[in-house]
Amino acid sequence: PLALGLYTVNAVYGDTITMPCRLEVPDGLMFGKWKYEMPNGSPVFIAFRSSTKKNVQYDDVPDYKDRLSLSENYTLSIKNARISDEKRFVCMLVTEDDVSEEPTIVKVFKQPSQPEILHQADFLETEKLQMLGECVARDSYPEGNVTWYKNGRVLQPMEEAVVINLQKIVNKSTGLFTMTSSLQYMPTKEDANAKFSCVVTYYGPSGQKTIQSEPVVFDVHYPTEKVTIQVLPQSSTIKEGDNITLKCSGNGNPPPQEFLFYIPGETEGIRSSDTYSMTDVRRNATGEYKCSLIDKSMMDSTTITVHYLDLQLTPSGEVTKQIGEALPVSCTISSSRNATVFWIKDNTRMQTSPSFSSLQYQDAGNYICATTLQEVEGLQKRKTLKLIVEGKPQIKMTKKTNTNKMSKTIVCHVEGFPKPAVQWTVTGSGSIINKAKETKYVNGKFSSKIVIAPEENVTLTCIAENQLERTVTSLNVSAISIPEYDEPEDRNDDNSEKVNDQAKLIVGIVVGLLLAALVAGVVYWLYVKKSKAASKHVDKDLGNIEENKKLEENNHKSET
């Protein structure tokens, strides 16, 4: 490279400077020398090399002691380049007749350290011009320049908003520069996450270069402009018994730490942190809730609805009634919104609500009136009615001859609750029959059955007893040789057909008698009509009233 038409060597600070002598070696060369020129133009010789004796001598110059090296081709090397080495050096070749000189300009470059943002502000406040920090780049040569960036864009100076001051200080011992650029900045709310950085621009042997600092994000403080209240947990519905927390927040930075909470029914605000908790809320907690800053400058509100569900079952618990009695049952619901009500009896859902105008044994059981509140998860109520239907034992005895005609079945049909205990006895002997078989006890009814083959007529007694009463019924049973059927529903198919045939015969006889009566009536009516016609004819021909009377008497007798 040439500087002002002169040959220039660019060197890096701390490296070795190599300067070739750019003269052709002449014939008859005696020696070669290197010198540099002082600012006033006076020369300072630093190295000598004889062409004949091949010896090298270095002048006693403190700045270059032990740093110089002069090669056979008169190339001068200077170790550990310094800023002070930026001079005009001259190569001299001397013969007996001539002295040739060729100057070389030395330029030394030093890359600065990576810039750092020091003395950073703890935080920034909006609407306030304050010192953001200082960008420092050290040990540069030549001096560099510093530029500030925000989010990758250059920050241009702006009155009362962006103020930049650059200072460059040189180290007198080394000649290196330190650049310090301070930035005063007035932030806005949008600068909350902005990245600030600085870049130093410097020159190196190959041209202009840049080094960037690490980006810095500042905490930007700004006042609250809006207050928001919310209910936690964020559920769509709140029911009685829930725990809820009111949370108030402001959009400032830092956010407010204290608020005033306004509760329904309270005239004054309750001072608290950013939360206000309520446990086991009841329906009277329904209403509008508000919160504001301590100075009451901003406020927000929300409405809370505490859903509830009440169920009243009348009667409830264990209820004992007598068979045939009436029992009004009501299940009343009170709720904050539409509720679904359903009945369950003995683990089976009922299609309609229970109603008892005359209690029967099958009405006994465990009844549950249950309700749920639509769209409110977990809000359900149920109450239980355990209905007991009691009744004194009722007995009906039946008998029939079995198809084999070898035995008779005697059945004691029993109703009652609690379940009666049944005993059989034979009247006369009073002995207890222990071979009876019982059917399953269902809806307060069951049967006790015995099979006997009496040789003679006997009287059987069925005794049913529970806590309410003892009932006794007897039945006369003929000897096995006499068939008996007094329980039509228990007869077999052959007997049923016989009964049907007998019924048909009876119906035929009745119909025949009715038809005969109808015919007799018609004959009588025709006879009466003919007799009246004959009477009128005699009266007209004879004109005799007395005879007519006699004829009427005779007619009456004949009619009779």
Q: What does this 3D model show about the protein?
A:
Keywords: Adaptive immunity, Cell adhesion, Cell membrane, Cell projection, Disulfide bond, Glycoprotein, Immunity, Immunoglobulin domain, Membrane, Repeat, Transmembrane, Transmembrane helix. One of its GO terms (biological process) is adaptive immune response. By secondary structure, this protein is mainly β. It folds into 5 domains: 102 residues, Immunoglobulin-like; 106 residues, Immunoglobulins (Immunoglobulin-like), CATH 2.60.40.10; 78 residues, Immunoglobulins (Immunoglobulin-like, Sandwich); 81 residues, Sandwich (Immunoglobulin-like); 87 residues, Immunoglobulins (Immunoglobulin-like). 12% of the residues lie in helices and 47% in strands. The protein is built from 2 helices and 44 strands. The strands form 11 sheets. Strands 32, 34, 35, 36, 37, 38, 41 and 42 form an 8-stranded mixed sheet that branches. Strand 5 and strand 6 form a beta hairpin. Helix 1 packs antiparallel against helix 2. It is rod-shaped and about 195 Å long. The C terminus is likely disordered.
What is the average per-residue confidence, as pLDDT, rounded to a whole number?
Answer: 86
* C-alpha Rg (nearest Å): 65 Å
The share of residues in extended strands comes to: over 45%
The CATH architecture designation of the largest domain is: Sandwich
* Total separate domains: 5
Keywords: Adaptive immunity, Cell adhesion, Cell membrane, Cell projection, Disulfide bond, Glycoprotein, Immunity, Immunoglobulin domain, Membrane, Repeat, Transmembrane, Transmembrane helix
Subcellular location: Cell membrane; Cell projection, Axon; Cell projection, Dendrite
GO cellular component, one term: dendrite
Membrane topology: Single-pass type I membrane protein
